[in-house]
Amino acid sequence: MTAPVDIRLHSTRPALDARPLEKRVGLIILATDHTTEPDFRRMVASDRIGVYVARIPYANPTTPENLRKMQPSLTAGAALILPDEPLDAICYSCTSASVVIGDAEIEAAVQAAKPGVPVVTPPMAGVRGLKALGARTISILTPYTVETSRPMAGYFAAHGFKIASFSCLGFDDDREMARIAPATLVDLAREATDAQADALFVSCTALRAALAVVGMKEAIGRPVVTSNQATAWNCLRLCGDDEPRAEFGRLMTLPLGQ
């Protein structure tokens, strides 16, 4: 037998920083999500801002009924992110579900676990982004079916936008949406953008659209706002980070509007 190791307890505890990282962004994402974590790692996470993720149950197909079923899981998902510690922002990363459930209902569910935390949803971040860019007339591109796209049209119209054109791709599985190549999205953006539109909104956090923003903008000659780009921008600004990130589009150079 070897002799027991003599373990010495240090006489004093080291001083502690207030936080491991200065700012904290929480993400509630779908169990099936392939895209939001990599996008937030590229666009938000840094040596100053930490991104902390919880996944909640979700089962395809992507229909309004299935999207609505996530609402009861939102409070529990928020509670799992750094329990009993405050966050600087929290994002529920599903555009279509946010439209179906409603921004106010999502905020209430999240704040039941994280009182007072600013809550970001992709469609509301999209509205803020489009307004920051001065857009009034927009084109919209989604990967969804017509049934799932219809509430999205109503949402943006209710927020004061004129919709010049609305195109959807007919997918009902978010895992397949994530497999659409960014280069393909550039071609789709060109086809989907009306000549009268001030900007294009590309919906869905599953799409790798943040990687295609610059290419889409060059293809259509006007600003592009995507779901993950808009939520990343909104969360960065809530953390006091105003650094321009032009590689992810013009929106990422602007201050947060109302």
From TrEMBL:
Entry-linked Gene3D superfamilies: 3.40.50.12500
Protein name (record): Arylmalonate decarboxylase
Record organism: Mesorhizobium escarrei
InterPro entries: Ectoine_EutA (IPR014332), Iso_Racemase_Enz_sf (IPR053714), MaiA/AMDase (IPR026286)
NCBIfam families named in the record: ectoine_eutA
